[in-house]
Amino acid sequence: YCVLGFEVDTVNSVQFSNHTGYDHWTGQVMTANELHTLYDGLKLNGVNRYDYVLTGYTRDASFLEMVVDIIRELKCQNPNLVYVCDPVMGDQRNGDGYMYVPEHLLPVYKEKVVPVADIITPNQYEAEILAGKKMNTEKEALEVMDLLHAMGPETVVITSSDLPSSLGKDYLIALGSLRKIKADGTLVKERIRMEIPKVDAVFVGTGDLFTAMLLAWTHTHPNNLKMACEKTASALQHIVRRTINHARGKEPGMWVGGGMLGWGGGTWDGWGGLHCWVVGCRVGWGGCSAEGSVRH
Ligand SMILES: Nc1ncnc2c1ncn2[C@@H]1O[C@H](COP(=O)(O)OP(=O)(O)O)[C@@H](O)[C@H]1O
Ligand SMILES: Cc1ncc(COP(=O)(O)O)c(CN)c1O
Q1: Is the CB of 89 inside a 6 Å radius of any atom of ligand 2?
Q2: Domain range holding 232?
Q3: Which of 167, 187, 240, 266 is spaced 20 to 30 A from 28 at the CA atom?
Q4: 290 in a domain, yes or no?
């Protein structure tokens, strides 16, 4: 189906009853073999040419390794392919970080996945464990982003952090860094900081949505990370606000669903012809979070 002008092929990396923030969850974790079988089908038909690949939540190390093998092959098919990786591993609450996927995935992300990624979107905790360095100040955050660039990706966006905002405690900080070596050898560096008004609730799936939106907006603004991030954050802000208003009963009749991706302004039609392959799961449905809109 077509989302924001992208024709998207989806592959489940897990198939769960609900996201893992619930007390219980059941379902299947996809294996490397199952992924390979699907990829083989695409190859046999000669339809394995993609412009973008986006990966999200994964629980299986060999599945991740297979993703890397496939990315390498897809990059041979299309050297301009952009791989957007959301290294979904964990989060922090009240300053304490924790992993919600098996810990042995960290070295696979670090040594194999991040090096082939063009854009990564960790949260603060994920950025810190990938870089092996804490970020308590903005200066340290910039150092962490440089360490992540050195691992491979030319675009790093830290989707949320608890760094202090000059606007007060009701704002969360997101940071972005674009580091590009141009054909003539010059280094282009763009750093951005976004202060995002906090909604007093915990959302699940917003990181996934952020990454999907960033993919779409960096396509429109490939050399303007500020613009891409602003449009992404704008959509997120609209969605979390409408979601919370709905949950509090202020917006009757609103459906938290895939169609919500249409908010945030801009013209999202008519891009046509782009192929995007998304490896990730659908993060559940129903409930009062933004998750319904993350139907990669
Ligand atoms: N409580 C919130 N208030 C406002 N915006 C939020 C909130 N939680 C998430 N967001 C939005 O979602 C984006 C991703 O944040 P988050 O879900 O914390 O990332 P991650 O899943 O990577 O930890 C943020 O940049 C912000 O735009
Ligand atoms: C199945 C699944 N997918 C994705 C996520 C990531 O959610 P978020 O976008 O909020 O980082 C989670 C978080 N627990 C999850 O359980």
Answers
A1: no
A2: 9-247+269-283
A3: 240
A4: no
Ligand 2 centre to CA of 79 (Å) is: 30
pLDDT at 251: 65
Q: Note whether residue 264 is domain-resident.
A: no
Residue ranges in the chain whose pLDDT is less than 50: 254-273, 281-296
Answer whether 118 contacts ligand 2 (Cβ < 6 A): no
Residues that are catalytic: 208
pTM attached to this predicted model = 0.87
CATH number of the domain residue 49 falls in: 3.40.1190.20
Residue 283: CB within 6 Å of ligand 2?
A: yes
- pLDDT for 177 equals 97
Q: What would the pLDDT profile of 269-281 be if each residue is shown by its tens digit?
A: 223 345 556 655 3
How far is ligand 1, taken at its centre, from the CA of residue 184, in Å? Answer: 37
Joined together, the tokens standing for residue 65 give 């390794």
Which residues 6+ apart lie within 8 Å of 43 measured at CB? none
- Look at the chain and report how many structural domains it folds into: 1
| Helices 124-131, 138-151: crossing angle, 10 deg rounding | 60
Among 247, 225, 158, 236, which residue's Cα sits nearest to residue 197? Answer: 236
Q: Please tell me the distance between residue 218's alpha carbon and the centre of ligand 1 in angstroms.
A: 19
Contact 71, 84 (CB under 8 A): no
214 within a domain of the structure (yes/no) = yes
